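Dear H.,

Thanks for agreeing to be a second pair of eyes. The structure we're designing against is below in C-alpha cell form, covering all 362 positions.
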C-alpha cells in the first residue's frame, strides 16, 4: 500500500464518510442540472504518519469538506473580483510555486500600498489553530474575511463582493451545489475558501521518502548530516517539530529590532507578548523566501547565520524554546550551516508545488 494511504474521518455533526481524494481535480460541474443534491463528501488524503496526537487535525464540524465546496473555494481563491479593482486575488500573494507564499518581501495592495509583513505559506493548515503572524484569527474562515476589506490589500467591502458574485454567470449555481442555496453571502464565501485551503497538503518530500519509506537514496550525504544537526545539536527541532515542522506556538526568537512590529502584543496589549510571532511550518522552505515575519532574510543561509551568531539573548521575552542559545550550546560552523541548508532543501515537495488540483481552474 502506498504511503498516501487515506485517513478517513467522521464529521460528527454531519455523520459523513469522506469519499473523494484531494489529489484529484474536482470538477466545477457547471453542466449539471439545477436543483440541490447533497454535496459529495471529500476525503483528505495523507499518510498515516502525518497524524499528530498533540495537535490533531482541526476540521470544523459545521463546515465539512465536500467536493463541491472545495471546487468553489478553489475558484474563489483565484477570483480577482474579490478586490476593489479586479486586479488581485488570494493567489496573487499566495503563489503555488512558492508554497502559496509571496516571493516579494511585502505584498502590494490594489492601490500600490506595501504591506508590513511577509505573506505566509499555505500548507497543511488543516491542523492549525491560529492564523496570521500574530494569530489574531482563530480559524481559516475568520482569516479569510480580513484581506478583502484590508486597505493595504484588496480594499473592497463584502457587500460589493457578494453583489459581484451574485451577478456572475457561474457562482449562484456553484453555491447551490456546495451549500444548497444560490443566495450568496460572505460567510459562505469564506467557508468555501477555507475548504480549499484545507486540501493544500504537502507530505511527499525527499525527507519523507527517506524517513518514512526507507528510500536511502532520497537524501545526499550532506543532507543526512544536516538532518542529524537539525534534530540534534542545532536545536532546530526544538521549535520545528514533525510531522509538519512547527509546534503551533507564538514565539519571540530574539530577532532584535522588530522594525516597528510588536507581533502578538498588538493584539493582546500584554507586554509578555511583545515580539512574539507565529511559528510556521517550514516544509517547502527552500521556495518560500524571504523569511521571518518581516521578510528580513532573503536566503536560508542568512537564516542559519542568524541562528548561529545573531540571536539577541537580551530580548526580555525570549522564548523558553531558545534555552539552548541562552546556554551557549548552539555553535555552528560554516560547514554545519551549509549542511542544514542542504537538509532544508530536502523538505521540498515538488508534487505539492505543481499539483494541478491546486492551480487556477479558470
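And this is the sequence the design step returned. I haven't edited it by hand at all.
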Amino acid at each position: 500500500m502506498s504511503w498516501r494511504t487515506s485517513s478517513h474521518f467522521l464529521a460528527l455533526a454531519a455523520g459523513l464518510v469522506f469519499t473523494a481524494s484531494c489529489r484529484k481535480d474536482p470538477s466545477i460541474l457547471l453542466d449539471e442540472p439545477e436543483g440541490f443534491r447533497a454535496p459529495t463528501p471529500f476525503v483528505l488524503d495523507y499518510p498515516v504518519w502525518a497524524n499528530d496526537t498533540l495537535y490533531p487535525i482541526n476540521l470544523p464540524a459545521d463546515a465539512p469538506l465536500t467536493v463541491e465546496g472545495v471546487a468553489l473555494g478553489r475558484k474563489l481563491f483565484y477570483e480577482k473580483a474579490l478586490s476593489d479593482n479586479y486586479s488581485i486575488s488570494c493567489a496573487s500573494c499566495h503563489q503555488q510555486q512558492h508554497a502559496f507564499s509571496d516571493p516579494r518581501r511585502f505584498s502590494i495592495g490594489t492601490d500600490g500600498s506595501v504591506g508590513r509583513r511577509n505573506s505566509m505559506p499555505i500548507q497543511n493548515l488543516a491542523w492549525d489553530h491560529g492564523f496570521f503572524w500574530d494569530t489574531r484569527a482563530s480559524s481559516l474562515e475568520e482569516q479569510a474575511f480580513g484581506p478583502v476589506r484590508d486597505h493595504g490589500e484588496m480594499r473592497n467591502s463584502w457587500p460589493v463582493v457578494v453583489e459581484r458574485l451574485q451577478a456572475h454567470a457561474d457562482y449562484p449555481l456553484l453555491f447551490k451545489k456546495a451549500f444548497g442555496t444560490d443566495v450568496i453571502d460572505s460567510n459562505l464565501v469564506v467557508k468555501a475558501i477555507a475548504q480549499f485551503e484545507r486540501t493544500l497538503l504537502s507530505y511527499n518530500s525527499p525527507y519523507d521518502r527517506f524517513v518514512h519509506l526507507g528510500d536511502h537514496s532520497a537524501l545526499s550525504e550532506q543532507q543526512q548530516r544536516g538532518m542529524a544537526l537539525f534534530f540534534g545539536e542545532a536545536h532546530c527541532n526544538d521549535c520545528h517539530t514533525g510531522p509538519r515542522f512547527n509546534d503551533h506556538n507564538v514565539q519571540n526568537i530574539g530577532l532584535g529590532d522588530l522594525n516597528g512590529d510588536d507581533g502578538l502584543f498588538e493584539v493582546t496589549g500584554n507586554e509578555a507578548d511583545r515580539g512574539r510571532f507565529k511559528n510556521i511550518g517550514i516544509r517547502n522552505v527552500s521556495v518560500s523566501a524571504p523569511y521571518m515575519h518581516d521578510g528580513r532574510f532573503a536566503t536560508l543561509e542568512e537564516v542559519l547565520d542568524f541562528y548561529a551568531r545573531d540571536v539577541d539573548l537580551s530580548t526580555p521575552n525570549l522564548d523558553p524554546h531558545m534555552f539552548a542559545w541562552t546556554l551557549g550550546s548552539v555553535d555552528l560552523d560554516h560547514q554545519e550551516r551549509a549542511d542544514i541548508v542542504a537538509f532544508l532543501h530536502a523538505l521540498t515537495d515538488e508534487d505539492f508545488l505543481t499539483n494541478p488540483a491546486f492551480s487556477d481552474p479558470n
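Two observations from my side: The domain at 206-346 is CATH 1.10.760.10 (Cytochrome Bc1 Complex; Chain D, domain 2). The chain has a mean pLDDT of 91.

Warmly,
E.
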